[in-house]
Amino acid sequence: MSSKTTVTKASGGNGRVTLKTIAEMTGLSLSTVSLSLRGGTTLKQETRDKVNEAARALGYVPDRAGVRLRTGKTNVIALVLDGAEDSIDFARSMIQGIGHAIRGTRYHLTVIPEFERHPTTETIGYILSNRTADGVIITHTGPRDPRVQMMIDADFPFVSHGRTEFYTPHAYHDFHSEEFAALAVKRLAERDCKDIMLVIGDDSTTNYQNIVTSYRKTAARAGIEARVLEGTAKLPPAEMRQVGLKLAAAPDRPDGIISDSEIRTIALVGGLAEGGVTLGREVSLIYKQTSGILPTLFPQMDSIREDIFGAGGELTRLLLRRIDGAPISELQSLAEPQPHWRSD
Amino acid sequence: MSSKTTVTKASGGNGRVTLKTIAEMTGLSLSTVSLSLRGGTTLKQETRDKVNEAARALGYVPDRAGVRLRTGKTNVIALVLDGAEDSIDFARSMIQGIGHAIRGTRYHLTVIPEFERHPTTETIGYILSNRTADGVIITHTGPRDPRVQMMIDADFPFVSHGRTEFYTPHAYHDFHSEEFAALAVKRLAERDCKDIMLVIGDDSTTNYQNIVTSYRKTAARAGIEARVLEGTAKLPPAEMRQVGLKLAAAPDRPDGIISDSEIRTIALVGGLAEGGVTLGREVSLIYKQTSGILPTLFPQMDSIREDIFGAGGELTRLLLRRIDGAPISELQSLAEPQPHWRSD
DNA sequence: AGAAGTCATTGCAACGTTGCACGACCTGTG
DNA sequence: CACAGGTCGTGCAACGTTGCAATGACTTCT
Hints:
The structure is a homodimer.
Chain A: H1 19-26, H2 30-37, H3 45-58, H4 64-71, E1 76-81, H5 90-101, E2 108-113, H6 122-130, E3 135-138, H7 146-153, E4 158-161, E5 172-175, H8 177-190, E6 195-199, H9 206-222, E7 225-229, H10 237-249, E8 256-259, H11 262-274, E9 284-289, H12 294-297, E10 302-305, H13 308-323, E11 332-335, E12 338-340
Parallel strand pairs in A: 1-2, 1-3, 3-4, 4-5, 5-11, 6-7, 6-8, 8-9, 9-10
Antiparallel strand pairs in A: 10-12
Helix pairs in contact in A: 1-2, 1-3, 5-13, 8-9, 10-11
Chain A binds a DNA duplex through helix 2 and helix 4.
């Protein structure tokens, strides 16, 4: 309390290597060193070599606070982490993907978890007004996501995991959900399913709409009955299990099910199994898979994989190019679903 | 290339609210404003009120770069995220826990994913030499973890998720693994198991040793056979499934199993089920559970819960107090395992 | 020989913050 | 009235960086 011994001393002249250190070592001025390190072409080659060598020898790394204060550049990208629990290890995979992509760059990653059920603009507002990052990655994007609107208005670099319906184009990377739904329906049709059901969490993301639309269209084309059970995102696992149980016992039990979430698939399968349904025989189930662990548990089930690690990497690459001023038209990409059909 | 239009302008005098803005507004000097905002007691109450009001009205937030440059304080805590896949959604829960605990503080969270199988000191070295954070949280701590050694030597604030065997005490929060093992063994003994097996990933963490030791001791006391199947952390899910399959068919099949990992439990159960084992009857299985999703899939199995969200919060609170100079002896805590016994 | 270029380097100010040393003003005392 | 001792506020320098204007030393042209 009284004696605050930890003085939080400013990084004094003791250990830290700064431009000044290099200047003193080479006998050049501080400005020259700075200029040289940033690749000043007006400098003599000899000088540049000398500076580079000294910098390397001393292990110089530019001070982030100095750069940031002077230039406004934070060298930080922010990941706004949605609280949704649908994919196993979504956060880890995404973060690893991002981390892998910023290796060797000057960027750091800060993660801001969201707690609300629906994304708020609060976090984004904070980042924008305090210039706390150079760019933002958001996930679980909605069709008219207010966060996107906000960043478009502010002309702030960002990339969304998921598309939107805004007129103004923006950088995004997304899973090709339409293709996912189409693949799944076709697969079920091949397995002679006549009455299928899509179990999906209505979490107001764009993906939700894309999946439902494509699902209906593909089923209609294949001439099979296609129901939708939506709003399952709100259900806690135990209730999701009940859904499976009820479904198993229902007189109009579907013969094919498509599930868009790993977590909900687990609960659903638990309920179906308890209800006496043999998956892969009486009911075929196809689920979206992201973690690689579920196939070991459900080898008898088909799945379609979304690569979250890869998505994290791609989102980062897009964002960094966006920060560097690349045209938006080059910053939009889709990831193709990877079917994992059981081998029989 | 040629025309770099995005000038990355320094946050010019246009919008940004700084001490200067408040100074001009109140007619006080910049120094006074700064002093006042930091609670200078030598100032007249009237002055302090005036400053506070202006700051509030303008929505002043201290510039991180300015503070950091001047004081060396980054207001950042770094989470070194282990690449291990054992708990479902470990990363999300941990990050949410941390995020919740730093709400309302000035701290930001940066996450640094590790890719190597075993933790390297590289990341920590970088943080230490570049003063990139005020404190570090590490997870999956080993008994003589080199990262811990490094930070102890540098007297750098950190907290580990997991204990160590170092002589010098340091801040930690840990799951009470010994208690976990003891609870699990006793439960199996109550269920009349005579020959149990611990399936555990030898991932060189302290927890591993604690669990094995306590497991053996408790089993000996209960007078039952206790085997250990270790080294499962290295196995990919498909092979883990094979382990379950072989175990099911083995002549000396155990009648009780304890598993320390959610992910491996899933694969193991997949294999056991394929091998025709009815869990909860022929074999009792108890697993460490962190995500809340597995019980919906395996309602017939006992589990013991570790609260990762809570751990994230506790780790953060300990770290912040460590940064503020609290004595180490107050910065060590254990989390009690929470048994979830099936209700029959 | 003086003006006008080049070329290579440098000094200075500023970004926003803090902490120290000082200054201005008041009050009471000898 | 001079002066000590408060009370309350302020000027200045520094943290590490960058960008611009300016410098000095050469060369080249007229």
